[in-house]
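Thread: quick sanity check before group meeting

JM: Hey all, I'm pulling together slides for Thursday and realized we never actually wrote out the predicted structure for the chain we discussed last week. Dropping the sequence here so it's in one place. If anyone has concerns about the input, flag it before I start.
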Amino acid sequence: MRILSLDTATDVATTCVWVDGDAVAETSAAGRSASAQHVLGQVDQLLAEAGLALSDLDLIVAGRGPGTFTGLRIGLATARGLGFALGIPVRGVSTLDALLRGAGDGAVACIDARRGEVFAAGPGIDPCVAAPDTLADRLIAGTLLVGDGAVRHRDRFPAASVPVDDSPLHVPWARHHAALHENAGAPEPLYLRAPDADRSLPAGAAA
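JM (edit): ok, ran it. Output follows.
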């Protein structure tokens, strides 16, 4: 199985070429939503490294978020467009699930949601958006907390174990999306919170 996987939901966009259970080429790029805009260039680079062409791919897996609205939409649109052009399936994996797979059992994933909130998921915590203090109250002392939300609000989680800022555990590596492909769903965005544009509409205007 030859899979192209990508995630552009957070400030670090990741892309991977996965062949028969191994990540044969992978990269990441930081810089808010701007990093997502270079994902097609990353795809070309990684396919060249892997010695493959787009036509060799069997499946595309994209991060569903939650995360930044613009970055998330860029990644999903890219994945869908490639899948349509190549005539191959496209699947979606939660960015929170990818972080959890990388961190291991017992960890909690925490993505910066802006506006003083975080997206989170883990044992006993269904995917949600919450204030950091609210999440902190739900964590068992010593819980491994990973993701850019954990880094940004580190001081709000005194009882958690948050790796150093540059730890790879904070990155939703695309290899984890590929590894989760068998249980992946539709490539639909997982927002967990209404986009800013919807929230700014007067009551009833979006009906």
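AS: nice. Residues 203-207 have pLDDT under 50 and may be disordered. Strands lie at 2-7, 12-19, 22-30, 59-63, 90-93, 108-112, 118-122, 125-130, 145-146.
JM: adding both to the slides.
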